[in-house]
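Hi Y.,

Following your request, here is the sequence exactly as I used it, all 117 residues.
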Amino acid sequence: MNVKSKQVLFWAPRGLTILFAAFLSLFALDVFSETQGFGETIFALLMHLIPTGLVMLALSIAWRWEWVGAILFGALAVFYALWSGRFDWSLVISGPLLLIAILFLVNTASRGLVEHK
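Below is the corresponding structure, written out as tokens. Let me know if you'd prefer a different format.
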């Protein structure tokens, strides 16, 4: 595998995760359409941002240990698919999570499970 392919394979899951987190964050904006007080709105916003926080936490772990990231993103995909109970949303949310898990796994496999420095 050449250097360019390795760089693309390294950055693809990370970049996709950041884009996916931004996409998930858009769903939190609906709290501003409701007529609630300031404190209730902030609480609702924080509740809506929990999935984004989980994705970013998984990314921070996956940045160092890609094989753990592959497991975490795969687990998040399966969890959401089982939790949502709706096939259309499962595909929209779990699909990218599964793709990211596969990309981290492929990147790990291309470099060996443990990289010695």
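The chain has a mean pLDDT of 90.

Thanks again,
Q.
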